[in-house]
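Module 6 notes. Inverse folding takes a fixed backbone as the condition and produces residue identities as the prediction. Think of it as a translation problem where the source language is geometry and the target language is the twenty amino acids. Below is one complete input and output pair. Work through it position by position during the lab.
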């Protein structure tokens, strides 16, 4: 079951949500230190983390599944979010270089079809990064946070899930070793919890971060999602989509 986008927004506006965002952002930046000139797509509720790439990426998009809802992002400029059918993404084949999936895999009702769409739009050398709750972590047991909703995963389950959908796992990382407590003292010591937990107790993390690349050789036409007529979102090299769209309209 998908979480409502308003509930997700409200969680990340709390001190606990802000702390969780900072800890996860650190690990994302470690795995993806440089996305300069790339096209980055966030799927699910990835906006708390997409700000990492907005300044250096050529283009940053946030796709929010229709059952989840959509909110404006970023607040300071025109919206880069789009409400989509997660099984039919409005993008051409091989059109993005990085896909960040947050609050989606554990909720998706058509997970296989969603991942096949991610495979379709990802470039041949592209990478996908999935953030998902750890089934053996404390956060997955606390329903007052989004990481306690949906289906949590183990590394073995994530590995099988990715391989079954034509991805090759590359790296597994962890985050959120600090307990999901509202105590200011505990939240203030979060960096220490992360450092100790990451080094000595990786299995107790709140979330897994799994990076993967697509298996080009494993493509099976019968297994891929059936082609549909899509209203595609253009990803130009130099000009924005809005500019190109206006130019085409004026010519008509």
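Target side of the pair, the amino acids:
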């Amino acid at each position: 079951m998908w979480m409502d986008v308003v509930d997700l927004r409200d969680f990340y506006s709390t001190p606990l949500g802000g702390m969780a965002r900072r800890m996860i952002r650190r690990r994302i930046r470690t795995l993806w230190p440089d996305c300069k000139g790339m096209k980055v797509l966030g799927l699910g509720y990835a906006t708390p983390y997409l700000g990492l790439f907005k300044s250096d990426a050529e283009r940053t998009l946030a796709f929010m599944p229709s059952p989840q809802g959509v909110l404006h992002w970023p607040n300071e400029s025109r919206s880069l979010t789009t409400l989509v059918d997660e099984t039919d993404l409005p993008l051409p084949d091989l059109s993005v270089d990085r896909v960040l999936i947050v609050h989606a895999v554990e909720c998706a009702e058509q997970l296989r079809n969603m991942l096949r769409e991610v495979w379709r739009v990802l470039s041949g050398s592209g990478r996908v990064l999935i953030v998902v709750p750890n089934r053996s972590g404390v956060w997955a047991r606390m329903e007052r946070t989004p990481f306690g909703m949906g289906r949590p995963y183990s590394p073995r389950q994530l590995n099988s899930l990715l391989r079954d959908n034509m991805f090759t796992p590359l790296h597994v990382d962890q985050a959120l070793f600090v307990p999901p407590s509202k105590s200011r003292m505990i939240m203030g010591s979060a960096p220490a919890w992360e450092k100790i937990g990451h080094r000595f107790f990786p299995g107790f993390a709140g979330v897994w971060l799994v990076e993967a690349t697509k298996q080009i050789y494993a493509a099976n036409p019968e297994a891929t999602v059936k082609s549909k007529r899509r209203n595609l979102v253009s990803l130009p090299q130099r000009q924005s989509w809005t500019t190109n769209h206006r130019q085409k309209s004026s010519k008509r």
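Reference fact for the lab report: The two ends are 44 Å apart (CA to CA).
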